[in-house]
Amino acid sequence: MTSIPLPMVENPDALKGDGMGCHSGKEQLQAAARAAGKSETLDQYAADYPKGPHDQPQSMCPAFGSLRVGLRMRRTATILSGSACCVYGLTFTSHFYGARRTVGYVPFNSESLVTGKLFEDIRDAVHATADPEKYDAIVITNLCVPTASGVPLQLLPKEINGVRIIGIDVPGFGVPTHAEAKDVLAGAMLKYARTEAELGPVAAPRGGKSEKPTVTLLGEMFPADPMGIGAMLEPMGLAAGPVVPTREWRELYAALDSQVIAAIHPFYTASIREFEAAGRTIVGSAPVGYDGTAAWLENIGNAYNVGADKIELAKQKMLPAIKGALAKMPINGRITMSGYEGSELLVARLLIESGADVRYVGSAAPRTRWSDADREWLEAKGVHVQFRASLEQDLAAMQEFQPDLAIGTTPVVQKAKELTIPALYFTNLISARPLMGPAGAGSLAQVVNAAMGNKRRFDTMKEFFAGVGEGYAAGVWESVPEDRPEFREHYKRHLQKLARQRKAEEMI
């Protein structure tokens, strides 16, 4: 085993207070991380994932995104370093979503963190896991506290026994959403793979190298969509390449080998930086609906310098089928939509071409130049597009536009149902469907129309439960509870007093 000097944690203040976890104050954590030498990482995140107008959308822990990417890759081990409660929540959620893989965990306490023993434990865990018979890569992730404490993953060896070591910091106070955390890991892997490819021959894709020029697809998508895109590209003599994030390390080389990258999800900034460093051409938007498919085929064909006749051939093969599918499954109704997957603009385009009256699209993802084409198309249709949308903005849009259907995050759906507005959860019911080409056209209509048809059921339920109360009076009571705001104020002052006592004890 290579001897590595064990660094003391630079910032023991990171463990003071209430564990300095998610609820300990973003500004304090950022200041602690910068004092511990993480300024370069935080500055890069701030440039890649710009905030505002909302500081950080209400969403799940960002680290879930990178965790999920690692767990989906073959021959890839994942190790977390963070507070036990955070690791419990992340592993619970990942297995809830079907992960069948073990998540490694390096625990710590005040002593192991402050003395640098945590880094030693991480290094030992990585060495113990690095079995080339089992793994191509190990991903070790610093969550909030280790990042704020300056645990230096960059000092880990780059490879052990041929197993690649990828260390990333994914703090909730530095990465706004779980969608962007996927890009953090995908970008780190692409950078590693690009360096390998520049140094010499690398492994070919498991299914062999495509005989046709390929288009790499950037962003997670429904499994059938890459096949549909491949059929769209075929008349131009092109083929669909790997989807990034990839499912296997060697696919990273194939992704980098494509001359053209389709930024289906436009917020993968770190990944795009690696593709551009490799000299690749980036094309935004996606082949959704009639207009979107026509423009995308044109842009991809031009990026590959395909002749106009082949581009026209591809359009003639796909566009009539898309128009027919859209006409066959119309959507009639007003819809507001919000989500945190990053594909909200694409779904909105498809809904509008299906006939829906879409007034508002909120996305937790930031605006980038690769989302401009979709934003401009939607705004030309009179849609308000809100990047970095907050829950309050999503709810205000629903109140203002009184939709027949609200598509959104869990709290949006919950509020909509309270208002007897039919609602669908974006992540599980909308983004888990094909969107591209003829298969995507009309795919939303069945679930959307069925949901809008449930309005009468909501009215019936509201009538049935009328009078049971809401808020502080919710439930069935022998007598209606009396609101006591003074009790809440008293308890609030009690909590503030306890917080001041803890602070005073820390100073002793």
UniProtKB/TrEMBL annotation:
Pathway assigned to this chain's UniProt record: Porphyrin-containing compound metabolism; bacteriochlorophyll biosynthesis
InterPro entries registered for this protein in UniProt: BchY (IPR010245), LIPOR_BchN/ChlN (IPR050293), Nase/OxRdtase_comp1 (IPR000510), Protochlorophyllide_Rdtase (IPR016209)
Pfam family, one: Oxidored_nitro
Statement: the UniProt record of this protein carries the keyword Oxidoreductase: yes
Oxidoreductase listed as a keyword: yes
Domain Nitrogenase/oxidoreductase component: 61-450
Keywords, in A-Z order: Bacteriochlorophyll biosynthesis, Chlorophyll biosynthesis, Oxidoreductase, Photosynthesis
GO molecular function: oxidoreductase activity, acting on iron-sulfur proteins as donors, NAD or NADP as acceptor
CDD domains from the UniProt entry: Chlide_reductase_Y
Name used for this protein in its record: Chlorophyllide a reductase subunit Y
Source organism of the structure: Pseudogemmatithrix spongiicola
